[in-house]
Structure formats: structure tokens, C-alpha cells
Amino acid sequence: MDRLTRKELKTDKFAAEVGEVLDFLEEHRRQATIAGIAIVALLVAAVGGYYYTKRQHSIRQAALREALTVFQATVGDVPNPYLPSFKTEEEKRRAVQKAFTEIIERYPGSDEAVIATYYLGVEALNRGDTAEAEKRFREAAEADRQPYSSQAAYSLAQLYDRQGKTEQAQKIYRDLMKHPTVLVSKEQATIALARSIGKQNPEEARKLLEPLRAGRGPVSRAALTALGELQQGATP
Q: How many domains, the chain?
């Protein structure tokens, strides 16, 4: 077969394939149109979902700000013009619990719900209810919504330390050292761990603190303070 014949055959084959594609599109024009509409619908849904999510986030944030304003409210006869005030601590307690509980119930699983749970723990601790505080801190920590859960875990560890549950506290500190966040740094967890184990194991505490004392800034100052406390504890 000569070269010209082969070229013609290739051209004819190409034309046949193009024709088949055009025939297919013509036969399936309705399906293609429906597919196009579906794609547009998906795009519209995605954009709408983005703005809906953004709006919901703004609503949750506004509710959290209102709850924090109640949490910071004054009690007594000298009101703060920039904050709400309550006549009694009991009145404020009920308002604080109501504000944060509504966030937890309305927006379960959200960052704001975890923060609200944490603040219920803080509120409970402020009024001396350590059992409730422990429960709330644990709930917020186990929600695993970082970085907020790390702060709850750190507060839970501090509570355990105060209660003499040092083994449980130290386990949390070590985990926070392995998984630091913007709210609880590795250095912060390290210093807390050193303080916790200082009486039982002062040598390990020093090993934890020594690398942190060399720098500058708040970490170095905190490490030096902890080393000073360790030294005072060792002095008979």
C-alpha cells in the first residue's frame, strides 16, 4: 500500500471517529445538558454552603461574645457601664450557666461549644465546685477541638495537681508536651510537669528545666522561677 493511500485511510479514520463523537453528543444532548445543569447546581450549592457556614460561624461567635460578657459581669451596687451587672453572685451564676449551656445545646460539636464547656468549668472552679469543674474540663479536653481542648486539658491537670492526683496530672502534661498548641506550648507543659514532679523526683525536674533557662523572655523567667522553687524545696 503506497504512502498516499495510508494517509487517506488515516484521514478517513480520523473523520469517522470525529463523526462518532458528534453523533454521540447529538444523541445525548439532553443528558449533557442535564449534566451541565447539575454541575452549575453543585457550584451554586458550594458557594451557598460557604456563605451559610460563614454566617453560622458569625452567629456562634456572637453568642459566645455575649456569654463571655455575662461571665465578666460585675456583682454589687457599683455597676460597670461597659458590662452587665448582677445584684448577687447567685444571680450571676444562673445567668452564666444559662448563656454557656445554650451555646452547647444549640451548636454541639463546634469550637464555641467546647469553649463554653471550658468556661462552665472555670465558673464551677471559681465557686469551689471541683467535681463540676473536673467534669467540664474533661468534657472539653476529650472533645479534641484544638487548640481549645489543650487549654481544658492543661486546666484539668492543674486541678489534679491541687487535689494531689499527681500521676494523672503528669500524664496530661507529658501528652501536652508531645502535642503542643498555640494555647499550650511545649515549654509551658514542661515547666508545669517539672513543678509537679519536683518533690518526688527533683533530678528529673532539673533536667526538664535546665534547657529552658538559657534563653530570654517569659519561658526563661518561668524556668528560673521553677528552679528557684525546686531549690527552696530541697533546702532543709
A: 2
Handedness of CA 6, 7, 13, 16 (dihedral sign): negative
Is 206 contained in some domain?
A: yes
Q: Given 165, 199, 223, which residue is the final one in a domain?
A: 165
What residue numbers bound the domain in which 201 lies? Answer: 185-236
Query: Tens digit of pLDDT for each residue in 167-219?
Result: 999 999 999 999 999 999 999 999 999 999 998 899 999 999 999 988 778 99
Give this prediction's pTM: 0.74
> Rounded to an integer, what distance in angstroms lies between the CA atom of residue 180 and that of residue 128?
29
Please tell me whether residues 193 and 158 are part of one structural domain. Answer: no
76: left (phi over 0), alpha (psi -120 to 50) or beta: left
- For 87, other C-beta atoms within 10 Å of its C-beta total 10
Q: Which amino acid is at 187?
A: E
Q: Residue 5: inside a domain, yes or no?
A: no
pLDDT digits (tens, 9 = 90+) for 91-112: 999 999 999 999 999 999 999 9
